[in-house]
Amino acid sequence: xxxxxxxxxxxxxxxxxxxxxHAELATDPEVIERFMNEASVAGRLGHPxxxxxxxxxxxxxxxxxxxxxxxxxALLTAEIYxxxxxxxxxxxxxxxxxxNALDAAHNAGIVHRDLKTDNIFLINREDVTDHVKVLDFGVxxxxxxxxxxxxxxxxxxxxxxxxxxxxxDKRADIYALGIVLYEMITAxxxxxxxxxxEALLGRIVSEEPPPLTRGEAPVGLQQMLFFKLLAKDPAERxxxxxxxxxxxxxxxxxSRPTPVSxxxxxxxAPPATPTPVPAPSADERALAPNVSSKPRRAxxxxxxxxxxxxxxxxxxxxxxxxxxxxxxxxxxxxxxxADQIGTALEAAANANQLKAEGLASSPMVRAAVExxxxxxADMQRDGDITFAVKKGEVLEIYQKREAPTxxxxxxxxxxxxxxxxxxxxxxxxxELVVSAAAPIAQGGMVVVAxxxxxxxxxxxxxxxxxxxxIDGLPEPVRLLEGKTPGTRLxxxxxxxxxxxxTLTVEVARAAAAEHNRFAPIRYAAWGLGGLALLIYxxxxxxxxx
Length: 545
Description:
Layout: E1 2-8, E2 15-21, H1 29-45, E3 53-58, E4 64-69, E5 73-75, H2 76-82, H3 88-107, E6 110-111, E7 120-125, E8 128-134, E9 141-142, H4 159-163, H5 171-186, H6 197-206, H7 221-229, H8 241-254, H9 282-287, H10 300-316, E10 322-324, H11 331-360, H12 363-370, H13 373-381, E11 394-400, E12 404-410, E13 423-428, E14 431-440, E15 444-451, H14 455-462, E16 467-471, E17 477-480, E18 487-492, E19 502-507, E20 513-515, H15 519-544
Antiparallel strand pairs: 1-2, 2-4, 3-4, 5-7, 6-9, 7-8, 10-20, 11-12, 11-15, 13-14, 14-15, 16-17, 16-19, 18-19
């Protein structure tokens, strides 16, 4: 639409960026309206994550311009492909700021409609890296604007922007943020533009994005991204950027930063410089007290004390030593094991909660729950509804009027989970099972339960422990069966919600060590006795000399 120039205010010497519309477009009323729309949005929001507009006007030739704050940094697009994909934690923090900016825009009745990585700028602000600035509200839509326009960048368009552009609302920005988050993590867009725009728009409407491939992504992030941000139906997405922020914040807590290796270097202290002591003068020697050089008589009591002390030391040796053992694995290692279990529980709970919420918000499921189990079964048989579950996962849908009534369980032969609201952890068949429930608006509930994959944690514990058990549930969960008794260590599982769960681990004992609590007395007696005898001997020698 125009050219961006670096400028400087001639009086206050402040650098600014001036966006000048191309002269050939300055005669198109619709283009001018979009251009001025951007100035209006950026000027009225005043949000720290939205680029600030400070002035606007027209040149002598009637060409409009906008004055923006000058930013030094990089486009998000350039940073993504420079590092070949951001870390999950960094991507989530950037996405949280974008959601914060768009929440302010949505509260003002403004939909961006062209959110993409090219419209997000990263700057350093007050020593904080990756401070986000959202740019280019040129095609944004106000709530009262009802024009039927297909606008935006194809790769980031929500399906409704293509099918029903007159009904686009803030949920289109939520979809675009999902595309941006996907691109930040994978360094690719889920739907690539190969030059055939019509085919691209068809894939956006009908195909699912390729799965994430980042191993560091928390369990459940893909479900949140696909079911709550990139859902084809706007009703199945999060309904506000405030909800998006809450979900992203939860995953930031789960996703841990990559540890930084810090090399510790011991710097030796500088050697002390001896202070020279001057020799006394003749006057000082004359003033010194007259000390007799005649040796005193060596006291016999001193020798007697020395002999008694040495003998007492040998007497203490007769007391038998105590046998002590110590654990070979420190408590900090076991606490790390417990923290990993807590993280796995939280990740499973988040994933199940997101899936339950996605199904509970589905119009088809809501319609079926309003009727009966037979209707739901017919819809499933006819392919109107498909319930896909992973290995070990159980899905239940309840109709709740006077009392909860089970409408369907997938798989049908699975053990019952139960219509209990919230998130719960159970021990079942020697493994941990996490369940999460979401209410259905018309009166019902979706419950999703799945076992927690503890394979990696079990392998880790087996490398330094003899036995391990998770306690605090009605029945313990044995992670590692032990045969040889060892030293027992118990640490809390900090991230297991309201349950008082603990990890109890038996570790190998160190070789038995002898410990005699009277040993210090023995050594003290020998030392004092030896010192007394040494002083007595020196006094005798002086007297003889």
